[in-house]
């Protein structure tokens, strides 16, 4: 069976959110060759396949009780919905949070949005990788300006970005206008 594809996370293997290894998925019980290794905001499975994420079965199977009356189970999520623009439909947010592999960050990773839609997560990036994406670098500079960083401090920070270390950046691409987007994180 072919592996599923994801609109908002086109290559979970390349991004490090999935690993090629034989395993039995704890949700569907099937023998699989690719195992999810990103975050799960819900019950923690010891083995999860991408098929169950894509179908939504994992989100339901790993739901947690909201407490109280027992009727308020909360579906598991694979990324958090933070700072979602008002023009992004709820169906997009649900697809990203419940049916798309997430990615691990140092603190709280956040999906990026553009043109009224979720952007495609391309992976972690350091300064070298971001040099090919001037729009993404400009976005990080603007972010630091909002925090009151000086241009010199911002430049030093950006040049210190490391794809496999910290601080790091997360690279996204708009699915409509192909604008490159980035966020950053530090431990």
From TrEMBL:
Highest taxon above the source species: Bacteria
Protein name as catalogued: CbrC family protein
InterPro entries the UniProt entry points to: UPF0167
Entry similarity comment: Belongs to the UPF0167 family.
Organism per entry: Streptomyces mirabilis
